Amino acid sequence: MTPPLVAGVELGGTKVFVLRARGTEIVERQLVPTTTPDVTLGAAREILTRWHAEEAFAALGIASFGPLRLDSNAGDFGRMLPTPKPGWSDTDIFGALAGALSCPAAIDTDVNAAALAEARWGAGAQGQEPFDCLCYLTVGTGLGGGFALNGKTLHGAMHPELGHIAIRRAKGDDFPGACPFHGDCIEGLVSGPALARRFGQPGDQIDAEDPRWDHVAHDLAQLVSTILLMTAARQVLIGGGVGMGRADLLDRVRAKVVAQLAGYLPFVTPDTIAAIVRTPALGDQAGPLGAVALALDALAERQGR
């Protein structure tokens, strides 16, 4: 049986990937720069409409940066909630993209979608059974976190907003943070812009031996420890430019997680920590495949499966 043709949109803060896939195999993708909502979504909609006319999609999945309204009963479902990204607050993401196609569609955050893809086809699917609880973090321009829980993404009143958790600061670290809402929440401490402000230069230009990395590792380890204690996630995957760009930082984070938990969680040990806190198995394909996962779920729901 030929797998269904589905479409996906991964909407990021700097770029958008529009793609079509046969089942889980991405067969074509196009890049659109993220500028204003009208220009960006208009370009993505034009690609989707053209492709749909060539061969109709079975479903569409939209994985977008947030914050988003994901309650399907809300009047502003699928819209961007207040965001520091200029011009994007209250943008109708779902309507602009799904309204152009006559097929089932789903929308979720990019990190929730990436967690779903990793749970099904990546790091969480390398054993006999997919993991029941997996967390995906992206550390780059901002810090976002999503969960795949028992085969579904995690929603409630909203979606997870891990980037704005306050953590216990390292002794001697007086960096005030860079978040416009909360100052020294975790995003304000370890995101790309926060690192540039903390160090006075971009993170990729900072020597790995700079002692200030120890504070960054402490902060990330605080977040990971909080996630493990609160959710009992089997894995916390750290992606994004900061997360995947510095293996030395990841090693420091692992050591600090073990030290901070102090043996309280029996499944977190020096022998297991490298498998628990790691980079995404799908690499930079977790986001695009997350959009595919959302599309396939929308199709399955329409078919009553």
Q: What would your notes on this structure say?
A:
The mean pLDDT is 93. This protein is of the alpha/beta class. The longest helix is centred in the C-terminal third of the chain and has 19 residues, at 213-231. 49% of the residues are buried. A hairpin with a 3-residue loop joins β6 (133-139) and β7. The two termini are 17 Å apart. The chain has helices spanning 37-54, 93-98, 110-121, 186-190, 192-199, 213-231, 240-245, 247-261, 273-276, 286-302, and strands at 5-11, 15-22, 25-33, 59-64, 105-109, 133-139, 143-149, 152-153, 235-239, 277-278. Strands 3-2-1-4-5 form a five-stranded mixed beta sheet. A five-stranded mixed beta sheet has the order 8-7-6-9-10, sandwiched between helices. The chain has ten helices and ten strands.
Descriptive tags:
Nucleotidyltransferase, domain 5; ROK; fructokinase; 10 helices; five-stranded mixed beta sheet; ATPase_NBD; 10 strands; magnesium; alpha/beta; metal-binding
* Multimerization state: single chain
In the sheet with the most strands, the strands line up as 3-2-1-4-5
Strand content: 15-25%
Low-pLDDT residue intervals, each spanning 5 or more residues: none
The domain count comes to: 2
Number of beta-strand segments: 10
